């Protein structure tokens, strides 16, 4: 991984993400693309009124100055940082920036959301996880030196998760971390007997050419099972695939990956499938 995108909104959380990006960049000789998205409406930008045009230019210059000062952090010394400013806060624009720049990973800070606010609005991290084609690393806390010794990879071990597993495995190897594999078995229609679960896992392992042990962990919900298992194994990072569902499909079905990214206290890395 040679290029990381870090969305910057001048918050504490975006500074946490910058710290993690700096830590990884120093170890792997990578470049940080610090991205700030201005919240200017298209009507405001396209206005022909002189006063509004002057006000818009003033706001852009002010944001550029604040952005420039924000990325002058001591922990970024010796790291190549490229500032990028976009005029709209449109999350699918991140994909365009990632493709243009050849970025490998998004690293972003988040404080998460709960309750009705989550249901109707969602966190910025959740929106990024939903829209991005490249992996997203979500950071909640301050890390002076980002190190991962224990990493959990959770999925249902269906064939569609194979690319995500391979990317997670490569990331674990990059960080020299132990990757623990877990299948969360829940009651209801998705319940599998032990033999059926191991049969599915065995087929997945054959496709992945990997014989690493997978723990079957029983819980009432997948999300709580993953969080509990991660706490039990003292995980430093949770890696999980996400479908990135949108619109009504997302409203009614949701995404386990987004929920984990929203609610986990430790860093979460998502892989779009």
Automatic annotation (TrEMBL):
Family as reported in the entry's similarity comment: Belongs to the universal stress protein A family.
PANTHER family noted in UniProt: STRESS RESPONSE PROTEIN NHAX, UNIVERSAL STRESS PROTEIN UP12
Domain UspA: 1-140, 151-271
Protein name: Universal stress protein UspA
First and last residue of the signal peptide: none
Database matches in Gene3D superfamilies: HUPs
Source superkingdom: Bacteria
């Amino acid at each position: 991984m040679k290029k990381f995108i870090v969305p910057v909104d001048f918050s504490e959380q975006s500074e946490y993400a910058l710290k993690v990006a700096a830590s990884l960049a120093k170890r792997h000789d990578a470049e940080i693309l610090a991205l700030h998205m201005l919240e200017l409406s298209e009507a405001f930008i396209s206005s022909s009124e002189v006063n509004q045009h002057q006000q818009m230019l003033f706001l852009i210059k002010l944001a550029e100055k604040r952005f420039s000062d924000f990325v002058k952090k001591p922990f970024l010394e010796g790291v190549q940082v490229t500032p990028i400013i976009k005029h709209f806060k449109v999350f699918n624009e991140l994909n365009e920036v990632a493709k243009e720049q050849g970025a490998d990973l998004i690293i972003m800070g988040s404080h998460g959301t709960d309750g009705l606010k989550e249901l109707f609005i969602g966190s910025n991290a959740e929106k990024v996880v939903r829209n991005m084609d490249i992996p997203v690393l979500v950071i909640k806390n301050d890390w002076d030196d980002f190190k991962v010794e224990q990493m959990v990879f959770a999925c249902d071990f269906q064939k569609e998760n194979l690319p995500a597993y391979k990317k997670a495995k490569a990331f674990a190897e990059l960080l020299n971390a132990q990757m623990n594999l877990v299948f969360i078995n829940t009651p209801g229609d998705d319940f599998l007997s032990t033999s059926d679960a191991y049969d599915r896992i065995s087929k997945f392992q054959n496709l992945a050419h990997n014989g690493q042990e997978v723990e079957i962990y029983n819980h009432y919900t997948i999300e709580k099972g993953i969080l509990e298992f991660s706490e039990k194994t003292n995980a430093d990072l949770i890696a999980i695939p996400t479908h990135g569902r949108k619109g009504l499909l997302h409203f009614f079905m949701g995404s386990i990956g987004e929920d984990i990214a929203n609610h986990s206290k430790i860093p979460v890395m998502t892989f779009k499938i």
